[in-house]
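Closing statement on the S-adenosylmethionine sub-project.
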Amino acid sequence: MSDINDQYDPYFQCYNAVKSDPLYYYCGEYTTIKEISQSGIYSDNCLSGMKILDLGCGSGRTIAHLFEKGASEAVGLDLSPHMVEDAIRFLTEIGIPQDKFLIKQANCFSSAELYNALPLEQYSEHFDAITAQYLHCYAENLDKLTESFLVSNKWLKRDGVLCFTAPNPKIATEFEYFQELAETRNFFLQFKSLTHSKEQIPKEKLAFNNLETGKELFSVSTFLYQINHFREALNRGGFELISAKGLEMNPNSGLNLDDDRNILRVGEYSDGYSFKAKNNSI
Ligand SMILES: C[S@@+](CC[C@H](N)C(=O)[O-])C[C@H]1O[C@@H](n2cnc3c(N)ncnc32)[C@H](O)[C@@H]1O
């Protein structure tokens, strides 16, 4: 992973800017919080007392949201040391006590790194919920996904829930190219399908381009797993898929769903999906 900083440094900065856009804040996290709460309702204290692990935690914005809804403890893991640093700084700045959170660097698709970061002696059946926003699209194949799910299963309480969001694969298979967020930042995002055969797991290139010159600043490739792929990897990891649904927009966000900038939809498709799974021996 020698190129990790080359790849993630610029991504990290741009992604932080995107994450401060309320449209993002209000869909993936809103749906996830609803799904993991006991009541199934997004409300004050709906995560009261819960211990939650956020995989691919980025700059800690999701973790802050979990605390806002009453979580008692949150742990975050991310591959990028810069994301980790920023998450620690951000959570400290907003006043989350040091003993309530732990952020560590780890490759979430390597069981060795995961066990090293959160040893089973301490974290076996520890978490009420494990979340991940747009992480699994970075796994290169189903075996890597399975590896991550197997470890997550050991960390989760037996009645715990795993809930993650992922991009909608239809977007890459049916739209060769699209772009978004053009006027809001000094860069715009371009998505380009890299899939040439129906048999392949769809892959897309996500590029950040300079708004004025159009020049590509950098890009990353992501895999767009379909529901069946996730179901298979989850089963192999000891989970049962309970639901897969399009991301919902927080109705209290005050944002207009018909707004042209509504990034939740591309054409008639939902931009992303929320997956919920539980231990398959229950
Ligand atoms: C699209 S961002 C989402 C960040 C965060 N979940 C959020 O919603 O703000 C993807 C994150 O996954 C991290 N990531 C990518 N590959 C990873 C891996 N193999 N293990 C751990 N984190 C990874 C990136 O560093 C980045 O922070």
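The pocket of S-adenosylmethionine is lined by residues 8, 15, 19, 56-58, 61-62, 78-80, 83, 107-109, 133-135, 138 (CB under 6 Å). With this model delivered, the sub-project is considered complete and its resources will be redirected to Aim 3.
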